[in-house]
Amino acid sequence: MNSEELKECFEYVKDLILKCGEILKEGFKDCGEVMTKANPSDVVTIYDQKIEEILIGGIRKKYPDHKFIAEEQAAKSKEAQVLTSLPTWIIDPIDGSLNFVAKSPLVCISVALTINEDLVIAFLYNPLTNEFFSAQKGLGAFLNGNKIKVRETEVLQGSTIATEINFGTFPFVRPQMMAKLNLFFENHIRIRTLGSAALEMGYLAKGTFQLFLCERLKPWDVAAGALIILEAGGVVIDIKTGEDYKIMQPNIIAASNMKIALELKKALDGIDAKLEEEGKTPKILYEKFIAAGGNIKDLR
Ligand SMILES: [Mg+2]
Question: Which annotated residues bind Mg(2+) (predicted)?
Answer without folding.
Answer: 71, 92, 94-95, 221
